[in-house]
Amino acid sequence: MDLPAWVRTARNNKKLTQEELGDVLGVTKSNISAWENGRHEPSYTQLRQIAALSGMALPNDDWQARSNDSSTLNERQDGLDSAPIPLDDNPDYPSIPRVKFKLSAGVSGFGVEYLQEDADPIVFRREWFRSRNLNPKNCYAIVVTGPSMEPGMWDGDTVVITTDRTTPRDGLVYAVNYEGELVVKRLIRDEGSWWLHSDNTDQNRHPRKRCHDGVLIIGEVVHKQSEHI
């Protein structure tokens, strides 16, 4: 019996769901699913825990030796698990997709085009979202274009926006539908109006623009990733 089938059989013998087995082992349902689908492997310690729980004999000696080598390596790394974190439906590490927004002038809604090229999602621990009062389902990652927000945000930087924060607040940065064009600007309250303000000090090239009915907030910028130091 191969390892994925062994884990699945052991769990079923104990009549446990993937989530219940994960709770016993201190891992997520996604980890159990990855083991049973052959995408990742449990450590030898986890394997012994499953065997003790289910009453099943351990898998063949070849796998034990390979897993034991892996466990020794992890111990040399101060106990840190070097296995990749499963990203598919992982409740402990919600992912933020990289997208392009499809906009139309004067239209409040938007379409989303998910990037399919070598664009892995941005991943944070659930605590990161919780501490910022963010819902992962409302978060998207987009690329900043142009130099108007330098030096805070550079052309090519990635920012995360949350689409459930569309009420303007003075001094915060938002992704905005400006007459059908996506822009990332700081909102400033002045002269009784809201203005789209560029952080670039060259205000002749990047003048502020007064908000009007055709300016629609898509979401607040809550995080940025940049290679500029």
Characterise this structure:
- The chain has 229 residues and is an alpha+beta fold.
- It has two domains: 3-76, 434 Repressor (Amino-terminal Domain); 95-225, Umud Fragment, subunit A (Ribbon), CATH 2.10.109.
- It is built from six helices and eleven strands.
- It has helices at 3-13, 18-25, 29-36, 44-54, 61-76, 126-131, and strands at 95-96, 99-102, 111-114, 122-123, 139-143, 158-162, 173-178, 181-190, 193-197, 209-210, 215-225.
- The strands form three sheets. Strands 5-6-11-7-8-9-10 form a seven-stranded antiparallel sheet, with no helix packed on it. A two-stranded antiparallel sheet has the order 1-4.
- A hairpin with an 8-residue loop joins strand 2 and strand 3.
- Helix 2 crosses helix 3 (29-36).
- The protein is elongated and about 75 Å long.
- The N and C termini lie far apart (52 Å).
- Residues 65-82 have low confidence and may be disordered.
H-E string: HHHHHEEEEHEEEEEEE
What is the averaged pLDDT score?
84
Count of folded domains: 2
* CATH top-level class of the largest domain: Mainly Beta
| CATH architecture label of the largest domain | Ribbon
Order of strands in the sheet with most strands: 5-6-11-7-8-9-10
List its traits.
two-stranded antiparallel ribbon, alpha+beta, elongated, 229 residues, Umud Fragment, subunit A, 6 helices, 26% helix, 24% strand, 434 Repressor (Amino-terminal Domain), 2 domains
Structure at a glance:
It contains six helices and eleven strands.
